[in-house]
Design a protein that fits this description.
This protein is mostly beta strands. It has one helix at residues 328-331, and strands at 16-17, 26-31, 37-42, 46-52, 58-65, 70-75, 81-86, 90-95, 101-106, 111-117, 122-127, 131-135, 144-147, 152-158, 161-166, 170-175, 184-187, 194-199, 205-210, 214-219, 229-232, 235-236, 240-241, 244-249, 256-260, 265-269, 274-278, 286-291, 297-302, 320-325. Pfam families: WD40.
Length: 343
């Protein structure tokens, strides 16, 4: 694998560096819906909350600890609480004002992904136990439990559209007006394991990223299938192929960013089928990333993603979180021009 020279700069894009990052692999980054507060979760069980100032500087505000690796997180709609879950098979609600944590969800295996659904005031959790569970966090038992065909590997929701990427390339599409049964069960058009999904802002479809450095643009309804296509990304030549670890839509322009195991993050426009900006490569994988609530900041974690095993030299790479000040030219659509397409 050509990861570049060991002397490659740790922060090649000159982005703001977050002080006191997690000391282990960073598994998720989630922004508050009401302010510039960022939560990071890590494989050592740590959960950190950072406050980001107007000048881009970020400092730790609070932290809490789980008994096992934390894999996912989500914010409450009012920004007062953070939900986090992982390999201890439970999810906790962390009240930032009181610093108290309480268990609000449980599965029979690790919780891989979660989301707070504001429209119905429920937390949804997807697990390796092959279930999707919805929680009224004031109650001990789930409000609804839905069987999945395989382990949950990816999840995203924009009410009423919920998309779950499962093992064996299975994709479950739910209409949350009837959450007890999948609206559609389809196979990913990508040939290899699903790594991440992202629902369109207009709820007409979703993106799928895989471990083969490829993204699929998919629409839910049959009459829009002609608009589906796939494109390659996070590759170097024909031999070095990297996982697409994260996809996030810009909240204003509807364009999106992909982040990969090659250490790159790139901005794209699916409607005009073009890459808007190619950023400089970081010296280690980008494990996760997300836009803040107004799309002015893109946070990303340069952190080993364990895709090459524990004995890889990159497993000793320092874990860092960077904040990119998003420029409008990087995310604003530029009009039709065929730059990416079915490949």
């Amino acid at each position: 694998m050509s990861w570049g020279a060991p002397t490659a700069p740790a922060n090649p894009n000159g982005d703001f560096t977050v002080a006191n990052p997690p000391s282990d692999g960073i598994s998720s980054l989630e922004w508050s819906p009401v302010g510039n507060f960022l939560v990071a979760t890590a494989w050592d069980g740590d959960v950190y909350c950072y406050e980001v100032a107007q000048n881009g500087q970020a400092m730790p505000k609070a932290s809490t600890k789980h008994e096992a690796p934390v894999l996912c997180s989500a914010w409450s709609a009012d920004g007062a609480s953070v939900f986090a879950g992982g390999c201890d098979n439970i999810a906790k609600k962390w009240d930032l004002a009181t610093q108290q944590s309480t268990q609000v969800a449980a599965h029979d295996s690790a919780i891989r992904h979660m989301a707070w659904i504001q429209e119905v005031n429920l937390l949804v959790t997807g697990s390796w136990d092959r279930t999707l569970r919805y929680w009224d966090t004031r109650q001990q038992n789930p409000a609804l439990k839905v069987q999945l065909p395989e382990r949950c590997y990816a999840l995203d929701v924009k009410h009423p559209l919920l998309v779950v990427g499962c093992a064996e390339r299975q994709i479950q599409i739910f209409d949350l007006n009837r959450p007890d049964v999948a609206y559609k069960n389809v196979m990913s058009p990508l040939k290899y394991q699903t790594r991440c999904v992202a629902t369109f802002p207009d709820r007409s479809g979703y993106l799928v990223g895989s471990i083969e450095g490829r993204v699929a643009v998919q629409h839910v309804e049959d009459n829009l299938q002609s608009k589906n296509f796939t494109f390659k990304c996070h590759r170097e030549g024909t031999q070095d192929i990297y996982s697409v670890n994260s996809i996030s839509f810009h909240p204003t322009f509807g364009t999106f960013v992909t982040a990969g195991a090659d250490g790159n993050y790139n901005f794209w426009d699916k409607d005009s089928k073009q890459r808007l900006k190619n950023m400089n490569k970081c010296p280690a994988p980008i494990s996760c990333g997300n836009f803040n609530r107004d799309g002015t900041i893109y946070a990303y974690a340069v952190s080993y993603d364990w895709s090459k095993g524990g004995d890889n030299p990159l497993s000793n790479t320092p874990n860092n979180i960077y904040l990119h000040a998003v420029q409008e030219t990087e995310v604003k659509p530029r009009g039709a021009r065929t730059g990416i397409g079915r490949r």
